[in-house]
């Protein structure tokens, strides 16, 4: 298997990386990314990242939670273990609202967190950008653009030149087997 | 730059961090707390907390061995400190979720400096809270009956019981708070990983940050996840204390059977929770030099919420009394007159003094911004809120319909030990938190600084202010 290469360039301010990312996008690159200490609003537009699909996952989980909640109470109170309590009907749905609600929220929350992990491909401990000492500041105060060798436009010299043109500093090539 | 046209209040409002720190300063300020040599004082306080926790463990073991008769419970007061403590701790927890969820949805950017801290407090308070219903059932090895599990007896829980709703509500609340807190922590754990000087730190923070690498493509999903969690936690936080109040409101005991309970309990929960955040935050910012990130303005805003919710609680007390009279219910009226002038009058008036009168000091800016005043008042409020739950539970039970079954509840030493012991658990967890985890949301604070805006420096301040409104 070919070595996986990543070219990384450093930027100092949010403004610089937004404009650089816009130029990379305009040059036709698609398999590139920004590594930044906090989300920069506007960078997603410059990179033309599509909207997150997470909402749909959460919706599905929420509906599942509501169904399990109501279904469980209906089934156990009317079919499996019917008991007259306080003269209420077996399916006294008003009393079942709190548990249904709680389970809806619970499953939605699981959907949100694990859905986000799944969409982001986390946990992943061995990405090349994690290995490089120069990139330690991506979680501190520096902003990085990385272009992956999987991108069809990737070319070691041309991409490096482009990154330099758009204002990137300390350009580095990272490799993983 | 046309600075002169800006009203001073607007300019001040914009400043969420003082001292104009750079991104790196923020990282350093927060991370450094976990990196520098452990202060001796921390060990001393931890040892103290662990001692209290051990006493708690012993008490619970004795409780399981001997049964809940060791508490002061008897007829007619079958619930006393156990449920008081439960409601007290659940209430404390509410501030964290309120700050992280509701204030987030309202775009209250000042929350970023305090949310991590408050969320941790929520988790630890909920952990303490969950213990009490767990142990007050006496035969704790039977608590699995609460779970809807198929069992050999073919029995199912009674889903029409508010006590069971409680299990689901508080359980969900604890789980969702934990997830919310952890998701918020991931980028900051990555920060600690990247700053790690030792291999152990790099390994551990690396493990828990799940390989976070600040990718913008990840941030998109991450921010959406955070928004959704805030969106689903908001109704959850309001529902939890509502459901806790159903434990009382759905019964027929005079003094409990009232429709005002859900909103009144929620207001009280936020009230006590904010007070606890202020108590702990005042100490932490003093001890760890975080005054630039948690400014006096943050504390003032929390005090305003304490004033608001305290006044709401005061209104609820008055309204309960009014309805007791207006409903014409003989027992209801007696319950309230007895509350205020009966054998537990001392508890009632402690509650009124602490909860209704003391927060009124916060009408004055001087008191709202004074550290000693807010520290003392926040503790007073917490004492008051414990008494509120005690008053509701015990005064309603000790004199119900039949004078022949009246009684007076006196706590035993085991009641006292269980209550104090739960603070041991709370503070032990808290001390571990402030030592090993970033207690301020680093990434979030950075994103509210002026230089985080991609247009920073490109236009004049007037535009920035105009956009903020």
UniProtKB/TrEMBL annotation, chain A:
Top-level taxon of origin: Bacteria
InterPro entries: ActD (IPR021776)
Transmembrane segments: 54-75, 95-119
Keyword tRNA-binding: no
Keywords attached to this entry: Membrane, Transmembrane, Transmembrane helix
Protein name: ABC-type Fe3+ transport system protein
């Amino acid at each position: 298997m070919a070595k996986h290469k990543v070219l990384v360039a450093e930027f100092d301010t949010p403004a610089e990386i937004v404009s650089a990312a816009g130029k990379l996008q305009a040059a036709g690159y698609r398999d590139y990314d920004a590594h930044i200490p906090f989300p920069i609003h506007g960078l997603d537009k410059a990179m033309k990242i599509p909207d997150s699909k997470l909402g749909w996952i959460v919706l599905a989980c929420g509906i599942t939670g509501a169904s399990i909640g109501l279904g469980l109470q209906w089934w156990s109170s009317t079919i499996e273990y019917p008991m007259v309590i306080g003269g209420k009907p077996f399916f006294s749905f008003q009393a079942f609202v709190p548990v249904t609600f709680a389970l809806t929220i619970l499953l939605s929350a699981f959907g949100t967190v694990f859905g986000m992990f799944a969409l982001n491909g986390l946990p992943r401990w061995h990405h090349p950008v994690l290995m490089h000492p120069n990139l330690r500041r991506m979680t501190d105060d520096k902003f990085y653009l990385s272009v992956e060798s999987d991108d069809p436009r990737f070319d070691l010299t041309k991409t490096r030149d482009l990154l330099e043109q758009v204002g990137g500093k300390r350009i580095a090539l990272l490799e993983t087997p | 730059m046309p600075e002169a046209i800006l009203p001073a209040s607007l300019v001040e409002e914009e400043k969420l961090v003082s001292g104009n720190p750079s991104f790196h300063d923020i990282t350093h300020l927060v991370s450094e707390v976990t990196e520098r040599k452990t202060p001796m004082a921390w060990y001393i306080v931890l040892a103290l907390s662990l001692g209290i926790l051990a006493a708690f463990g012993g008490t619970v073991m004795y409780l399981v061995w001997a049964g809940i008769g060791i508490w002061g419970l008897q007829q007619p007061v079958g619930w006393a400190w156990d449920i008081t403590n439960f409601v007290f701790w659940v209430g404390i927890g509410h501030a964290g979720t309120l700050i992280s969820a509701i204030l987030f949805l309202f775009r209250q950017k000042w929350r970023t400096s305090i949310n991590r801290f408050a969320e941790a407090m929520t988790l630890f308070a909920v952990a303490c809270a969950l213990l009490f219903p767990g142990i007050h059932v006496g035969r704790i090895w039977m608590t699995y009956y609460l779970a809807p599990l198929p069992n050999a007896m073919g029995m199912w829980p009674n889903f029409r019981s508010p006590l069971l709703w409680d299990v689901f509500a508080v359980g969900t609340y604890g789980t969702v708070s934990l997830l919310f807190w952890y998701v918020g922590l991931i980028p900051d754990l990555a920060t600690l990983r990247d700053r790690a000087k030792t291999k152990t730190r790099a390994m551990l923070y690396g493990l828990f940050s799940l390989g976070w690498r600040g990718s913008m493509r990840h941030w998109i999903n991450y921010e959406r996840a955070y928004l959704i969690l805030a969106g689903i936690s908001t109704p959850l936080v309001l529902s939890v204390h509502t459901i806790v109040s159903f434990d009382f409101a759905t019964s027929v005991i005079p003094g409990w059977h009232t429709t005002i309970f859900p909103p009144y309990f929620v207001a009280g929960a936020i009230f006590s929770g904010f007070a606890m955040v202020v108590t702990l935050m005042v100490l932490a910012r003093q001890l760890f030099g975080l005054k630039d990130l948690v400014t006096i303005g943050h504390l003032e805003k929390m005090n305003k919420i304490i004033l608001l919710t305290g006044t709401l609680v005061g209104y609820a007390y008055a309204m309960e009394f009014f309805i007791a009279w207006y409903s014409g219910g003989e027992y209801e009226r007696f319950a309230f007159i007895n509350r205020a002038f009966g054998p537990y009058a001392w508890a009632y008036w402690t509650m009124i003094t602490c909860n209704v009168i003391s927060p009124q000091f916060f009408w004055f800016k001087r008191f709202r911004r004074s550290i000693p005043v807010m520290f003392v008042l926040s503790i007073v409020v917490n004492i008051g809120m414990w008494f509120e739950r005690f008053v509701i539970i015990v005064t309603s039970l000790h004199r119900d319909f039949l004078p022949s079954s009246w009684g007076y509840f006196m706590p035993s030493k085991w009641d006292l030990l269980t209550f104090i012991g739960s603070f041991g658990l709370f503070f032990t967890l808290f001390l571990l938190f402030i030592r090993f985890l970033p207690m301020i949301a680093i990434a979030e604070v950075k994103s509210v600084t002026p230089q985080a805006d991609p247009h920073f420096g490109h236009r004049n301040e007037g535009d920035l202010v105009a956009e903020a409104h």
